[in-house]
Structure formats: C-alpha cells, structure tokens
Design goal:
single chain; alpha/beta; Rossmann fold; 5-stranded parallel beta sheet; 7 strands; 45% helix
C-alpha cells in the first residue's frame, strides 16, 4: 500500500447524525406508520433524486400531487429538515481533529447531499469547513455510487487515489472508490473507525 496522504470523508452517518426519524417520530403515532411512509411516500429513492440535483420545490410538488392526503407530512420533509439533524457524531469529529492535528494529511468531503440543504449544515457545524475541498452531489447533478462523482473529486483536487483513504457508512459507496485504487474503510462506529486507522498506521 502506498503511503496515504489524503483522507476522504462521507458526511451523513460518519460526521453528522442525520436521520428522518428524528423529525417523523414527533408526528407519526407509531414506528409502523412512519416506516410505511418511508416505503411508499418519502422513499429513499425519492430523496436520492434531490441528492442528484432535483430541486426541493419540484420534489415536494411531485409527491404532493401524487399523495395529496400526505401533503402535510411531505412538506415538512424539507420545511422542518433541520429537525432531522441530531448534531455532530462527536467521537468522529474528535478523530477528524486528531488526524488534522498530525499535519500529515489533506482532507476532502464526498457527500450525497442536496445542494439546497447543504449550506444549512455548513452554517450549523464548523467542522464542515475544515476540509481542503469538497464535492457535494446536488451541486454536481450526480451522486454516489456513480463513478463520475469520484472522478470529479480526484480531478478537481489532483488526488492520487493510490494515496487516498475513503470512508463511508454505506458499503455500496466504497466500491467505486476501491475500483479507482483507494484504500477504503466501511464506517460502522467511531471506535471501529479509530481502530481501522490505527491498524493502517494512520493515527
């Protein structure tokens, strides 16, 4: 393995605790009702379209027209979006700080995130400004795991993928990074991530 000089982070689920449950548990009477809503109305696939550049307005109106009886719940997805954020995953932020303090690495973010909501998170969380650069899917009109967004990151910031480590909580998103020559770590918990970094002698 070449000496790692670059660490690339996914954000949601790694550094930021984002989960729609934090909002919808306040409004649905049961988890079963909430899960039905995710499966049939505000589905993960629908959300990914915003990550890939569809506007919040278009996304919302599409579902309101399709499910008028759920209009109130659909509109709160983005109307109360900040309630889906439960703050930083502090142990992960601490690891990020430890890595930065070492002075050995460049840091980049590669995230599936709506271009319209990402600026809100940047205002809320100072550590999102610690990166040397970032690629936000909603701004690029494509998303992980499509290979092009990884190539955009590599080309834009002149990253040597053989000297880069990428971590993501979604194992599917690691495959293109690995195919491009990156070292990868499937993020499952801060403790596990710290151990992986130590095993690779990066921390």
């Amino acid at each position: 393995m070449a000496e790692i000089n670059t660490i690339i982070y996914d954000l949601g689920g790694v550094l930021v605790d984002w989960n729609p449950d934090y909002l919808y548990r306040k409004v649905f009477k049961s988890d079963a009702e909430m899960q039905w809503f995710y499966k049939n109305v505000c589905t993960p696939e629908w959300n990914l379209e915003q990550d890939a550049g569809r506007s919040i307005k278009d996304a919302t109106e599409f579902l309101v027209n399709k499910f008028p009886e759920y209009q109130e719940y659909v509109r709160m997805y983005y109307g109360r979006w900040t309630e889906m954020l439960n703050g930083p995953i502090q142990e992960s932020v601490d690891i990020f700080q430890n890595l930065k303090d070492s002075g050995k690495y460049k840091f980049y973010a590669l995230t599936n995130w709506s271009a319209e909501t990402f600026p809100l998170a940047v205002e809320m969380y100072e550590f999102l400004n610690w990166f040397d650069g970032r690629v936000v899917s909603g701004e690029e009109k494509t998303r992980k795991p499509f290979p092009q967004i990884y190539k955009t990151l590599i080309n834009r910031f002149s990253i040597d993928p053989r000297k880069a480590l990428y971590t993501d909580d979604n194992s599917r998103n690691l495959i293109p990074a690995k195919d491009l020559g990156m070292e990868t770590v499937h993020f499952q918990s801060p403790a596990q991530f710290r151990k992986s970094l130590k095993d690779l002698e990066l921390l």
